[in-house]
Structure formats: structure tokens, C-alpha cells
Amino acid sequence: MADYFIGDIQGCFAGLQKALATVQFEHGRDTLWLTGDLIARGDDSLSTLSFLADHESSVRTVLGNHDLHFLAVANGLKNVNPKDNLQPLIDSARLPYFRDWLRAQPLLLALPDESGFMSHAGLPPLWSPKKAKKWASILQESLRSADYRQFLSEMYGNKPVKWDKNLTRQEKITFSVNAFTRMRFCTKSGELDFSNKSSPKSSEANSLIPWFEFEPERFDTTKWVFGHWAALMGETQNPNVIGLDTGFVWGNYLTIMHWQNHQKIQISA
Ligand SMILES: [Mn+2]
Fold it and tell me: How much distance in Å is there from the Cα of 102 to the middle of ligand 1?
């Protein structure tokens, strides 16, 4: 019985299969943990989502920005971006099934040994893990509700960029969606930045810091597993902050981590 964590798959079905074969993954015995962005951009989102939904008893995933975007597209709230390669999924007879399977997935998961959490983007400035739990459960409830289309139509927005207990409820919801699925950098005073996707080492990063360098003591006793940030290539300089998106869809590699023995295996694209 092993727990394996894999970073953003983004519809790269062959890469996923290669990773599972490499570790001799066995459904029913092992558990596969995914950092979200299961689909979009890669060459076979339909097979990827079919496989994950059909093996749901051994799969635990959080939702990423691409997964939420697909839900908006599948509900006619957003247009299909041709670059996403999602048309076969949209045209599938199982679309309603995939849509409902995806919207039942959480934004936050507790790690296998309760040592911390996993979310697609991370833990935003000024939030404790407890606050993340609270807002993840509010978003999850909205996504699972009968009128979830309303939620999807209202969740988008680049503001507010900073958490404040005096924000309106809708502002808090938009902030939470962005915090769980879109954030990478923030300012030293805790404002989220949504435009910079570079590496923290790059000159483009300027005075911005990665979200996990904001009050890093938050991670002294809480581990955090995340994806979403390919340019980071898993380099966080903090053993408790574990970044698993290593840009397979962009030609780099897929990272698969054995939770119990901390071993990381790389599958080249
Ligand atoms: Mn993402």
C-alpha cells in the first residue's frame, strides 16, 4: 500500500500511463494523489479523464484552474480555447458524467499522514491552514450544489488581490478560487499577482516572492503539496513545501513521488 503523488498531467495520458507502469502502480492497493490540472493543453484529455474517473476508488485529486475552466466551458459559460485541445472531451457522449465527476472533487485535501495539505496552487498569504479548510469546504459545497452554474459564472475575477476579513462574501469566494487554483507570486505585503508565471530566480520576478515565502513559518509544522507552477521545476528550497508540476506538457518531465519513502521519479516527455 503506497501513496504516489503526481504533478499536473494536463491531458498527457501516455505520460500518466508510463509513470504508473514505472512504479508498478496497482489499483486497489495503491493510491494516486494528483495536484489538479488533470486536463487541457496535452494531447489526450478525454482518455486521461476517462481513466481517472473509471479508477476513482484509487484516485484522490484537487481541482486546478484548467479543471474549473473546463467546467465553465462544459456549461456554456466560457468558449473553448482551441489551444486547450478539449474538443474530443466536449464532444464525448460521457460529457455530463465527466462534468459531474469533476465538480465533485475538492479544492483541498489532507495529506495521507495528516501532516499537511495539498491544493493546486498553494496556501495564500494571511491564511492559516484552518482558513483554507473553511473556504475549500464552502467552494466544494457550491460546486456540488444544484445551482453550481451560478457559482461558476460568478467565480472569475482578478480582484480582490489581498485577503481581508471585511471583504464581501462574493469577494471572499473569488479570492479563494484564485488562491486555490491560480496564485504563484505575491508581494511582500501579501497581494496576489496573477500575471507573472516565471521562475523566482528570473529577473521578471522583480520584488515579488513565491506564496510559500510569505510567512514561511506557516509551513514549519504543516507540509504543503502543490502543482500549477511549471517554471518552478519543483524548487522551493523548503522540504515542507513540495512542488510537483515539472512541466511535462511543455516538454520537461512528470514527477511521481512515493509519499512513504520520499523518493521522486522523473518521467521525461
Ligand atoms: Mn494550473
Answer: 15
| pLDDT tens digits, one per residue of 2-17 | 999 999 999 999 999 9
Domain ranges of the chain: 3-268
Q: How far is the CA of 65 from the centre of ligand 1 (A)?
A: 5
Q: So what's the pLDDT on residue 203? A: 86
Q: 230 CA to middle of ligand 1, Å? A: 9
Query: Grid cell 486555490 — which residue?
Result: 180
CATH top-level class of 3-268: alpha beta
pLDDT at residue number 206 = 86
β-partners of residue 257 are 5, 264
Rounded Cα gap, residues 35 and 232, in angstroms: 15
- Ligand 1 centre to CA of 176 (Å) is 15
Rounded to whole angstroms, the Cα distance separating 167 from 204 reads: 30
